[in-house]
Amino acid sequence: VLAKYTDDEIIQLVRQNPGYGLLRMVSELYPTKNSRPTRDKNRIVDDMMFIFQEHNEQTGEDPFDLIQSTEFSTMVTEAEYLKRTGKKYLPKGAGRTTGKRKKRSEGGGQQNFLALPPQRFNWGEIEPAESRPSHIEKGFKHEYTILNLRFPFSKFWEMWMDGYSRGEIS
Question: pLDDT, tens digit, for every residue of 126-145?
Fold first, then answer.
């Protein structure tokens, strides 16, 4: 149900980016456009969870555990975390308390260690979202803008040609 990526590509990206995090992966696959965040992020996550569940049932490999794994995170100090991520603040649940401490510029935040997930997204052989052609740009009619890659349309056509009714096919 994901318009730009097939199920196999999603699974391959999960294998190439263990420990990256599902929400961060969704942001990589569907980046912001014109400074606006990805719409329907929850729907995309639900679709990916469905793909993960199907893959787990078929192969026994759990892609969700792999993408959410903490084994690939490194423990770094607060100052190092801010430096590597380029963020202004620490993540929620980092355990910061109020009180006197050194400024970051003076080397503050050296006593508390945080888990830093992998910072580079590995695309491998898969083409990134920015360079993928959009089905909307190709000029498909409005009713065909969302291509559903899950339905076996050739099988439905074959059933129709064999004389099945629409009710029997659906």
Answer: 888 777 766 555 554 555 44
Q: Is the Cβ–Cβ distance between 88 and 119 less than 8 Å?
A: no
Mean pLDDT of 153-159: 79
- Residue 72: CA atoms inside 13 Å, Cβ hemisphere, count? 17
Alpha-carbon span 145 to 18, nearest angstrom: 32
Output the CA torsion sign for 48, 8, 121, 79: positive
Backbone φ and ψ for 49, nearest 5 degrees, come out as: -65, -35
pLDDT for residue 67 is more than 90: yes
In the chain, where are the structural domains located? 1-71, 74-116, 133-170
| DSSP assignments along 100-123, one per residue | ----GGGT---S-EEEE---S---
Q: Does residue 74 have a pLDDT over 70?
A: yes
Residue 75 φ/ψ, nearest 5 degrees: -90, 125
Whole-angstrom distance, CA of residue 147 vs CA of residue 137 = 13
What are the distances in angstroms from CA 80 to CA 42, 112, 117? 31, 10, 13
Contact indicator for 72, 117 with CB cutoff of 8 Å: yes
Q: Looking at per-residue confidence, does 43 or 39 come out higher?
A: 43
pTM: 0.67
